[in-house]
Amino acid sequence: MIENYNLFLLVCGIAFLFGALFPIMFKRLPISLPMLQVSFGIIVGYLWLSLSFLDPMENGVVIEKITEIVVLVSLVGAGIKIDTPLSWRLWRPTIRLLLITMPIGIFAMAFLGYYAFGLSMGAAILLGSVLAPTDPVLASSIQVGPPNTGGEDTPRFTLTSEAGLNDGLAFPFVYLAIKIAEAFSEDKRFTSEMLWSWFTHDVLWKIGAGLVVGIVVGKVLAKLVFSKHTRETTISQGYVVIALTLLAYGLAEYVHSYGFIAVFVAAFAFRRSEHKHSYHEKLHDFAEQSEGLLMSLVLVAFGMLIGQGLQSGVELTWRVYIVSFTFLLLIRPIGGIIALSGLNLPRTEKYAISALGIRGIGTLYYLSYALNQGFFGEEDALKLWVVCSIVILASIFMHGLSAPKLLQMTSTKPHA
Q1: Taking the C-alpha atoms of 84, 87, 93 and 95 in order, what is their torsion angle to the nearest 10 degrees?
Q2: I need a labelling partner for 220 at 20 to 30 A (CA). Which of 33, 95, 101, 212 fits?
């Protein structure tokens, strides 16, 4: 890669230009910015034969750290933009998606991974865990608008809050997959004691501590920013966004909890303090632009990886396509409908929420993080990368084309 550094910068510059001109040049076309950038990356990767192969298994640490940053910035942006107050009635659809739809997706994909692809038990659970959460980065186009821009309709709010929370809530299952793979790699059985340890530490403690850290960091930082001593002073929104992100994430990880949960909760808690203040709009703008720049880099690189795979003749079996589209077209929508059944929502809203389960950069992070632990075999790792890449690529195009029409079908009446 280093010998092509200048050309790679040129490619990135073109990708950024797409992002700048997209609202002007492509607004009448039925395509999304991620579709355009991934397509550009695929073309570059397929035609640029002198480029070193972007092997995800050899560059797992780089992928993990870059995608981690993108997801963190996206989580802050999602938490800040939500106008809806914390209310059981308004958050009930989100809670149902988290507690019902996500586990359905995890176990259904684990079943398919085990029987369709011959994955080990740990790798199969990992497949379900990394694909179950919706992506807060690529889902930004179907989320609520900037802060204080009016009432939020149920579909957009539900998709925003779901993407903000389920990235952290998928982590317990990722750890479960890692622990199972570790036990089998050492020729041990995964015992009931290990399962109880996983439940008490990786589920109860890490989720609970992440929530507490997020609330504390968000409230304390809001007290500082909106105190009478700083009210007349212009505080850089860039510093605040980065501080909010790193303080919540760093403290949560230090106490061995889930940083993703802490970051989203911190951003939401910060927003609920002086929630009508115009400063939140500045924070959102900075976070959104930062997210867009980072997303462009990852999407172009991901497209180049796909293009190189096509050029090198990577063989894709019919099972990969069938399982990928089964997940996107059946498992997620059916799981969403099951979770939302019984709620007083229009049928079109239930279908839109259920169908728009976008997969993306979060999946790349979880997968690289788990594989970097070194307990999964190379054969399983290759299968996981292939399946997840196809699911993400299919999701980018399928949801990019369908999202505008699905959201137009829903009621535009705000719920708050």
Answers
A1: 110
A2: 95
Q: What is the pTM of this model?
A: 0.91
Concatenated DSSP letters for 288-326?
HHHHHHHHHHHHHHHHHHHHHHHHTT----HHHHHHHHH
> Residue 357's closest CA among 173, 95, 89, 131?
131
Q: Which of 275, 247, 391 is nearest to 325 (CA)?
A: 391
Listed by start position, the domains of the chain span 59-409
- Are the CB atoms for 225 and 279 separated by under 8 Å? yes
- Categorise residue 146: left if φ over 0, alpha if ψ from -120 to 50, beta otherwise: beta
Look up residue 321 and give its two tokens: 């396509």
- Produce one character per residue of 232-260: b if its CB has 16 or more CB atoms within 10 Å, e if not: eeebebeebbbbbbebbbebbeeeebbbb
Q: Each residue of 39-81: pLDDT tens digit?
A: 999 999 888 877 777 888 888 899 999 999 999 999 998 888 8
pLDDT of 184 above 90: no
Calculate the average pLDDT of the chain.
87
CATH class for the domain made up of 59-409: mainly alpha
